[in-house]
Amino acid sequence: MRFQTAIGIAALVLYVLGAGWAQAQSSGPLRIEITEGVIEPLPFALPVFEAETGDAGSYAGQISQVIAADLTGTGLFREIAPSAFISGVSSFAAPIQFADWKAINAQALVTGAVSVQGNRLNVKFRLYDVFSGAEMGSGLQFTGTTDGWRRMAHKVADAVYSRITGEGGYFDSRVVYVSETGAKDSRQKRLAIMDYDGANVQYLTDSSSIVLAPRFSPDGQRVLYTSYETGFPRIYVLDVGSVQRRVLESQEGTMSFAPRFAPDGRTIVYSLSQGGNTDIYAMNINGGGVTRLTSAPSIETAPSFSPDGSQIVFESDRSGSQQLYVMPARGGEARRISFGPGRYGTPVWSPRGDLVAFTKQNAGRFHIGVMRLDGSEERLLTASFLDEGPTWAPNGRVIMFTRETQGAQGRSTLYSVDITGRNLRPVRTPEGGSDPSWSPLQP
Amino acid sequence: MKLTTKTVLLVAGLALAACTNPNSFGAGGAGGAGGVGGAVVPGSANDPTSTAYFNQTVGDRVLFAVDQSVVSDEGRVVLEGQAQWLLANTDFTAVIEGHADEQGTREYNVALGARRANAVKEYLVSRGVADNRLQTVSFGKERPIEICSSEACYAKNRRAVTVLAGGLSG
Q1: A359 — contact with chain B (CB < 8 Å)?
Q2: Cα angle at A34 between A437 and A425, to 5 degrees?
Q3: In this structure, are residues B76 and B123 in contact, taking their beta carbons and an 8 Å threshold?
């Protein structure tokens, strides 16, 4: 269960300096600008990592596969089939035959080696810009336990992605979500957590009561969510490692939902319904210090902090329909930021601070969109019968959300899309999935 | 037309309720069986003090227009019956469940369902039902009763249902 802490991956810059090892900088010609909307994925070659010890072979194969899947899954990269390779990479230390990789139009080359000692796993890699014939950045190695091999693969992929795009990575991250089974009128829901790519699913609650909208703490160790286990919606906090949970809000005659952490990890905001009216409140994570942030007869819900914790974006129907507003974190005057046709809800502030992602409902369709915090540059990324509930990848470049299909057989599935609207793809989960919340990048 | 029937039955029900010991068996009553010219089976839909009677004859739910929480004229007729029934059957409490159709975001629909449940509660309280006998809860769009994705289903899902508890069954 204590998956995260058991691994303790250590990342070290490879200290062995070969000729020209540290020369090449990431400012070389090999570069993907994500925001410009890539037309043609960048071709890369990733020969299966060398197994440096006898029992490292299966890890080397699987780690290589996960790295390649991470990169191709972004839609920004295309893997060149190993059958096309002219020369292999006989050993991690051997010089690179750049001409052979140029000939098959590999623009990036990733090489690596894996060794196992007891339950300790070591993975090291190098990234080359084939056409300039130079290494990009320094070699890196990661050390951890063998059961953390996927995380080490994700860390390698994050480094490769980061060096080529100039953006932070997001592969070594997790997603907490609601796993769903059963028909629409008898749906069973339970909290689940998984790696960002759908691997390592664990269930955190049983399905005896409805659970909604889990949200990670800033350190990824705790999850806020709403559960109906008392018969009424109440906010709970759950420790991911121990799976222990406690109720945070249980005022008689009220309902509480839509919780979210502040960046400090100690304060939460949430909605409380009382007498039919829903407003936004804050409290500390120990359940004290309850403060009312809005006081309007309208519905105020779905609050989300700015990354610096100074402001909150939320939705309100005070104008007559759901729209997005921004207010100071301690409450106070709110300014409306959404003005297009239709209704806007579930705003989530980007971890980079530059954008807000939202659900838009217009003319019988649902969209996931992004806009700047002043409401400008609205961009709809998706359109379907029902898309909702965006969550940001740690690097603020990819969004995951819920898509529910139409009709009696309707089913919820997690999807991801990048902020240019490209690379829309389902995220594989064992059962149906909804209400994803993306963790920060793991340490 | 359905409403007329309900109103007529309601009047009959109230007459019976006034002189019947609330010997309810809670929600377990099997509706519609027997009762023709015979003794009323306690707890059955023919027992005017039963939950089954409340659910089927008085009517346990009111429906709402899209994104609205105002009780309609038809809804008020049902709630009038609920209020009279609750005033006559004081052993019962109720949880009013507010629901929304699937056209809307999850959080907003929880808040909308809360508005609907509260609108029903306020009506019942205005008719004399003690505030402390009524609780409200919203299920948002989590518990539809109809599962198609068209207005025929949505109309039935935009509802507030008065769910009885108590009586002698506890």
Answers
A1: yes
A2: 50
A3: yes
AA letter at B125:
V
Tell me if residue B161 falls in helix, strand or coil: strand
Token couple for A369:
């969109």
Chain B residues lying within 8 Å of A435, measured CB to CB: 106
**Angle between the N-to-C axes of helices B73-88 and B106-126, in degrees from 0 to 180, rounded to the nearest 10:** 60
CB-closest option in B111, B135, B139 to A273: B111
- Residue indicated by tokens 């072979």: A57
For the sheet with A188-195, list strands across it.
A202-203, A188-195, A174-181, A432-438
Measured on CA atoms in the order B102, B108, B111, B112, is the torsion positive or negative? negative
| Token output for A190 | 């339970």
How many C-beta atoms lie closer than 10 Å to residue A178's C-beta? 29
Confidence of residue B21 (pLDDT cuts 50, 70, 90): very low
DSSP state of B128: T
pTM (two decimals): 0.89
- Any B CB within 8 A of A219 CB: no
**Between chains, do B105 and A346 touch, taking CB under 8 Å as contact?**
yes
d(Cα B143, Cα A81) in Å, to the nearest integer?
48
In angstroms, the CA A159 to CA A125 distance is: 10
| Alpha carbon A52 to its chain's center | 33
Instruction: Return the half-sphere exposure (C-beta side, CA atoms, 13 A cut-off) of residue B145.
Output: 13
Q: Residues A221, A260: contact at Cβ < 8 Å? A: no
Provide the pLDDT for residue A37: 59
B111 vs A contacts (CB less than 8 Å): 271, 273, 278, 299, 301
**With the CA atoms of A414, A223, A242 and A122 taken in that order, what torsion angle do they form, in degrees rounded to the nearest 10?**
60
With 80 as the cut, is the pLDDT of residue A101 above it? yes
The shortest C-alpha distance from A279 to chain B (Å) reads 9
Q: How far is A408 from chain B (nearest CA, A)?
A: 5
User: Alpha-carbon torsion B115, A294, B141, A212, what sign?
Assistant: negative
B100 touches chain A (CB under 8 A): no
Please state, in angstroms and rounded to a whole number, the distance separating the CA atoms of residues A365 and A342.
10
ipTM for this prediction: 0.91
Contact A364, A342 (CB under 8 A): no
